[in-house]
Amino acid sequence: MKKLLFAAIVATLPFLTMAQISVTGTVTDNNQKSLPGATIKLKSQKTAVVSDANGNYTLSNLSAGKYVFSVSYVGYQTAEKAINLTESTTLNFSLNSQSFIADEVVVSATRASKNSATTFKNLNKDDLAKNNLGQDLPYLLNQTPSVVVSSDAGAGIGYTGIRIRGSDATRINVTINGIPLNDAESQGSYFINLPDLASSVDNIQIQRGVGTSTNGAGAFGASLNIQTTTRRDSAYAELNNTYGSYNTWKNSINVGTGLINNKFSFDGRLSRIKSDGYVDRASSNLKSFFVSGAYYGKKDLLRVNVFSGTEKTYQAWNGVDAETLKTDRRHNDFTYDNQTDNYQQDHYQLFYTRTLSDKLVANAALHYTYGRGYYEEFKDGETLADYGIAPLVIGGVTQTESDLVRRLWLDNDFYGATYSLNYTPKSNLNFTLGGAYNEYKGKHFDEVIWAQFANYEGSNSIRYRYNDNDAFKTDFNTFLRANYQIDKLSLFGDFQYRHVYYSYFGIDPSGKPGQQNATLDFFNPKAGLTYSFNEKSNVYASIAIGNKEPNRRDFTDSNINSRPKPERLTDFEAGYRTQFSNLSFGLNGFAMIYKDQLINTGKLNDVGGQTRQNVADSYRAGVEFDGRWQISKNLYWAATATFSRNKIKNFEEYLYDEVDGSLLVNNYSNTDISFSPSIIASSEINYTLLKNADIAFLSKYVGRQYLTNTSAKSESLSSFFVNDIRLRYNTSFAHVKNIGVSLLINNVFSTLYENNGASYPSLYGGELTRYNYYYPQATRNFLLSLSLKF
């Protein structure tokens, strides 16, 4: 039945006929100068084209009916025209220049464009809104190329993960308005700390590979450049409410003043998300707010953002062991009532842009992030000496072990400044000089808050702090980027220097604990070229070098002699992009050559994180496809596909016998990198049933993923093919501008699958055993949303 339904949907494609009406025109400024590269789109539809070198455009294959055309161009006011099409016609646009600096001017300075020698994917607010019914941000990116997402709780709410080309979150550089989001020590990005962030996002650019320096200093495996709320000219209010499976609720309100006196605007959002989770007790209680104010001057733009998120999540990071998975997919090892993770993160951002001349624009930003929280857990039969607690004598019996409850705390401050100068001496030449300086102060401390047997005397009283250490990290970078256009050939060069200093509590060469430090200097050059056949098609090629320091656990679990080396990546990208009136696609080839890559061993540490080790030589190489076909006015098909090889040339696995401490070394050659599937594909077939109603069939295929680097099928995640259905209807009534109803049915065929896992090797008395754990995902479930816009 599954195959028949899928075949039936695909079979509907041929009999839909192509319309024949076309609209042509020219886009100019108010001095009749042509504007090449202007975007012409039909409102409430995905159809869009770009004007050519003479400002001309054509939109073909349109049916008779009413349309609203919207034309936008950086530095100019967006123009709209409504038209009732009955036959082919000409529609020209004359755009007025902005009387103030627009947010788009700031954004475009940090983004790859259609002629950049970089592979990227842009998502706008409408793209995100289609699936923004409560799941975390990674799940809204699931249909983009080379992406694999995961969820501890199984339903996309709570702790979620994302990998791009097999690179995990520690190698995906995330910035919000150009400010780093990645944790300075663990290097991961935790979107759970900013629930419902997507409701305050205007657009996202995903760059795969090393990417550009303007997209973040730590760019390595991929980058997410997130731009939050930008100017909206009219006042608005929005109410969004979702209810779904597993007692899932999302409630949010968005309000904005629009542009006041052509100078000021204010926006705000308040959200909460609650869910019991698919896995037993894997509940989430999430809250957040976002406030932004801006001043728009003729030569100045000033914006202040304040946003915060709090989360309380019941832990589900152990996964389910292989035997239990057969009988109880929703099993959770944890049963203690308050086995929870609790965290709050506050963000403060200040941005200033100044147009110094028609050739020079300066941008500067200050930021501060304050994070604090803990996770609490019950531990049974712990040795008191490990916590610095003296044995307790009760009735003549000495108690050296005890059940206890502990809290592991993190209290950190992250602050700094970023800047850039954009200089355009000629129309075909521009320079960007930029950089940033950031400091991080992290306090790590742990305490016992209850124990079955505890010594209450002196420092060993209850709530005894048994571990207390601090970390300090500075990160400085500066870069110079140049672009030069020679007829149809565009060249760029990008040179970045980065300096990192890290002080942490670790292990000295003699094995004793103590404060340690590391200083690292990196040079990351990049270069590329693009040849444009015309305004709609080009080919490109680039080479980029990225270096990345180890994360906190890599440092703290080693001494200066055994410390892992930094990773080095040489990234080659080459591709072809084209756009027609009803078809657009990109084909990209990549080769990511690593030196000393830090790879996951498959074993988890005591807080659910992957442990890592260097491998001398490894690589990822493959080809990516990203395309969209507007089959007819009512039907489009978007698809992505990635085919890759992800190999380690030589891998040595080290196992220590728990009985006598002897060492076993297993050698592997040309083995697969863990969590790096060779095939990733997605499909979205969207059909407009009525004028304001559409149905979409979403599919995702992910090939086999190995839990370890041994290419052992017994230690892997099976490939999976999952399908969702999305229905949407929009209308208006009285003073309500839009009433939107959305239904998202996830995993419509109730496929049983796991998208994440772990493997623990154990050598005991010469006998090797591998214990596998998996993170099962929800079977058929739904999210039903009602949104009101005023």
UniProtKB/TrEMBL annotation:
Gene Ontology MF: a single term: siderophore uptake transmembrane transporter activity
Xref: InterPro entries: Beta-barrel_TonB (IPR000531), Beta-barrel_TonB_sf (IPR036942), CarboxyPept-like_regulatory (IPR008969), Plug_dom (IPR012910), Plug_dom_sf (IPR037066), TonB-dep_rcpt-like (IPR039426)
Domain TonB-dependent receptor-like beta-barrel span(s) in chain numbering: 307-748
Question: What Pfam families does the record point to?
Answer: CarbopepD_reg_2, Plug, TonB_dep_Rec_b-barrel
User: What UniProt keywords are attached to this protein's entry?
Assistant: Cell outer membrane, Ion transport, Iron, Iron transport, Membrane, Receptor, Signal, TonB box, Transmembrane, Transmembrane beta strand, Transport
Please state the span of the N-terminal signal peptide per the UniProt entry: 1-19
Tree of life domain = Bacteria
- Membrane topology type, per the record? Multi-pass membrane protein
Kindly list the places in or outside the cell where this protein is found, as annotated in its UniProt entry. Answer: Cell outer membrane
A GO CC term assigned to this protein in UniProt: cell outer membrane
Q: Which residues form the TonB-dependent receptor plug domain?
A: 116-222
**Which family, according to UniProt?**
Belongs to the TonB-dependent receptor family.
PANTHER family tied to this protein: FERRICHROME IRON RECEPTOR-RELATED, FERRICHROME OUTER MEMBRANE TRANSPORTER_PHAGE RECEPTOR
State what protein this is by name: TonB-dependent receptor
* Organism whose genome encodes this protein: Pedobacter yonginense
Q: What is the lineage of its organism?
A: Bacteria, Pseudomonadati, Bacteroidota, Sphingobacteriia, Sphingobacteriales
